[in-house]
Amino acid sequence: MAELGKISDLELMKLLLDPKRSQILEYAAGQALTVAELAERIGEKPSRLYYHVHKLEEAGLLEVVETRQIGNLVERFYQSKGHNMWLTPDLDMLNKNAAWFLQRVQTIWNPGLGMLSRKLAGESTHVKLSMSLEQQTVEEWRRQWQALDASFPASDQQQTHTHTAASETDSQAQQETAVNDGGQKRTFAFVVMSYEIDEARALGLFPDDDE
Q1: 49 and 114 together in one domain
Q2: 188 with 96, same domain?
Q3: Does the global pTM surpass 0.85?
Q4: Are residues 56 and 106 in the same domain?
Q5: Which helix (H) or strand (E) holds 162?
Q6: What's residue 50's pLDDT?
Q7: Could you report the per-residue pLDDT of 99-142, keeping only the tens digit for each?
Q8: For residue 33, what are the β-bridge partners?
Q9: Can you list the alpha helix ranges (DSSP code H) found in 5-126?
């Protein structure tokens, strides 16, 4: 898997955390597609994708790999630059933009709770939630989190993965373990949720942000 490395630019992070743009990158990873073809796969009107495609091309995540002259129009075929990119935000960038990042976490988390509420009410929705309370030392907790974190992405398919775990630096981790551990068991919560964003959007639970 290719790795782009740390993301230190907020605007790039905003691009990659947008579900619609993630879909564009995923569909364009395996083959070159026109905006019309991308729109058909995503279920959108082409006019609503041109802006997103332009922003991704501007950021260097999409590139035009072929052009065809059709009458007076030039048809462009786009492909993602770099398959299976593993993207991780820089911690300093997140610290400086904490309010935006936390708001974005809520934007992604809350629709999942809405989906879960509908599922508990008897509706058929694609949502999964797993919770666990574990008695562990700080070091045990850290190792378990690292193992869980390393399990993403679960798929080996060609796509662009935006990894947004807000973890500490190595020095911070060592300091926290040295100060707080001492072999004492503590209670740690692990919460993992997954749901289908397209379904959440169709149900009116996920905001359609075109900015």
Answers
A1: no
A2: yes
A3: no
A4: no
A5: strand 161-162
A6: 93
A7: 988 998 899 899 999 999 999 999 999 999 999 999 999 999 99
A8: 78
A9: 10-16, 19-30, 35-42, 50-58, 91-96, 98-120
